[in-house]
Amino acid sequence: MDYVMCVVYLKISKKSSGPNIDDFFLRRNLCTPQQATALTESILNMIVKDMRPLSLVEGEGFREMVKETIQEGRSFIALTTDIWTSLATEAYLGVTCHFITEDWKMKSLTLATMPLDERHTGVNIATWLEEVVTKFNISVDNIKAVVHDNGSNVVAALKLLAEKHNWVSVRCTGHTLQLVVNHSLKETSISKALGAARTLVEHFRRSELANTKLKEKQQQMNTPEHKLIQDVATRWNSTYFMLERLLEQRWPVTATLSDPEVTPRGKHYFDLKPDQWSLIEELTQGLQPFQCATEFLSGQEYTTLSCLPQLAKGLQRSVQQSLIFETTPGKAFLTKASKELEERWGDISSFCKEKDNTIVLSAALDPRFRKLKFMPAEQRIEVKSTVEVLAIKAGKEFWKSTQEGQLQCHSVTVPRREEESVLENLLQSDTDSLSEEEESHEEQKIQMQNGSSQLQETFAHKKEQACHVNMLIC
User: Fold this and answer.
1) Within-domain flag for 291
2) DSSP SS3 for 241
3) How many Å apart are CA 11 and CA 9, to the nearest integer?
4) Alpha helices in 306-435 (DSSP H)
5) Domain count within the chain
6) Neighbours of 227 (CB within 10 A)
7) Nearest partner of 75 among 460, 436, 401, 456, judged by Cα
8) How far apart are alpha carbons 258 and 422 in whole angstroms?
9) In a domain, 162, yes or no
10) Tens digit of pLDDT for each residue in 58-101?
11) CA 146 to CA 410: how far, in whole Å?
12) Angle at the Cα of 138 (from 107 to 365), degrees rounded to 5?
């Protein structure tokens, strides 16, 4: 019986999120998926039959296997890190590495979830990250970027690591969007409306009678029999889902609250006012692009950094298009959201040789945004020239390091985009803007303008020299 229970437990553990044993066996040209499954079952049976502890996977052998897997990433590795607190108020530092395998598949491995007993200062966080990297024999030169939240201590740590190891610091776009939306929802009338909505949802969650009556009203009005959603403070999009569901169930909810069996006469404390319903409708409309962007940025099987400049521009555009809101709180939300986007991402599309240009350069390498329509026309040629120089440099280094000088080509599966209408409006890839001829004509025009200005400067310089010569002759 114990044997059966242990096997069941291990099988359940194998199905949990994150990399499992199968992932390690399915490396390119190592074995087939069927062989990987058989090997995994053999390991599970070995642990059970030989009475080995489950901590076997925490031993040196398992670490060596992880290290070997990481080597598939060759020389380019990115890290994500976050400090979080458990329900027992214990602090932990999580570190995950990300890389692309030889067959062009994105892979992620959790390197550490280490308890923190010391103060979370920038110096300590930088030291802990270096310890994790050293533990897995990862060269600091192989790490290209670290994604982190906007906490001042983490930002300070990455500033130290950037100066020491030249690691690129990338702030989590999801966390930035969280801050943008949360700050935009702090207007007094909005806070009151959201508080009333939360109280209403909580009432239906606690009252069995109200919940039963709501189901009856849903059937009578031919409305989807969905439950109301309670939002969570740490996830802004849960507020969007709460408001969206309330709008869907507005009339069944109103009818339920009007039932004397549910609400005694004179005690309609949970009813939302008409102006609050109007505000909820506007907030749902205004928050939809932010929800779509958050869901897109949460993808794990495709890159998102290159989309950020166009996404930021698309969000700003969606806010401007929604300025037709009628309620004063709704207009205040849009004004604040536009201001927050400008403060946090206003210079994300600018290019300057004196600063880190990782985001802009990644967008330039993305076929969807290679025309760089989100940038001023004068900077596009400069960015493309920089990309060409970097490509030539990388090519020379590659041919120098390789002995065979041959590249293996692999097919890449493009992820299917969800919610295409809203997402396409936000991203608006460059392939939908100008044709190749129009783009070439525009670039030639810019080059001619630059050449004309240079010619004028040369002519002015020659004229000044001639004047000096004449003065000397005289």
Assistant:
1) no
2) helix
3) 5
4) 308-321, 328-345, 358-365, 377-401, 420-427
5) 2
6) 13
7) 401
8) 36
9) yes
10) 677 756 665 565 555 456 899 999 999 988 889 999 999 998 88
11) 27
12) 50
